[in-house]
Specification:
Blueprint lengths: L6 E4 L2 E8 L2 E5 H9 L4 H11 L8 E6 L5 E8 H9 L6 H11 L1 H8 L2 H13 L4 H23 L5 H16 L3 H7 L13 H21 L3 H27 L14 H9 L1
Amino acid sequence: MDSDKALVVFEDKEIRRIWHNYEWYFSVSDIIAVLTDSKDSKAYWRKLKEREPQIVTICHELKLPSSDGKFYNSDCATTKNAFRLIQSIPSKKAEPFKQWLAQVGYERIQEIENPELVQKRMKEIYKAKGYSEAWIEKRVRGIAIRDELTGEWKNRGVNKNIEYAILTNEISKATFGKTVEEYKQFKKLNRENLRDHMTDLELIFTMLGEASTTEIAKNKDAKGFVENKTVAKKGGKIAGDARKNLEIESGKDVTTDENYLEKPESVKRLEKKK
């Protein structure tokens, strides 16, 4: 997400936000600073968590830029959870801030009512970053397939983020011979999203592995983490076998250390055509 959109302003005070899991997350300490005029919003937040420990469950720790230019883990909240936070902070600014937050979060409400807007906005973001239409279509389709898979996992008793990560690694290992982290190192990535640096074929085989996993989980009625781990390996193997067959027939590896850190995907695509 562009840096100029990572800051929003309420009454001349900046509030940091980050686009995560397809919605905005706002800095809790920045919200507190606005509502309380506290000179030490972090201390206020610590006391609030002590007084209402359950409020921690509505927050998510994400990396936000600090005044020194570095990124640090910070408690963040979605638009919905920010409203819950406001209820715990006595402030004369609460009502105008709620109205402001509702307006800022209006795009998200629109997306919930009309999911097609999500895809439209994602396409606009990727296009602005220099991705081609052909790549964008695959990436957006891959997001839909991923959402279907995680939804299936959730319905089948897989609820923890760490379990999602483990199952995803099982699919990745069976498909490409690498865990997600190993693949990122292979492509020389750090905090970047791995899939945003995949080629067309890498995206296609990623989709195949996840779509296969979803289909097997449904047909086998896999329950819980252990059974779904076995299914993840099988779904990934289907994609892995297809990848290997293509590599044999084409004489070229599907996996590549190519990334789009220095040159946009659309530029590299044009260079390959020359």
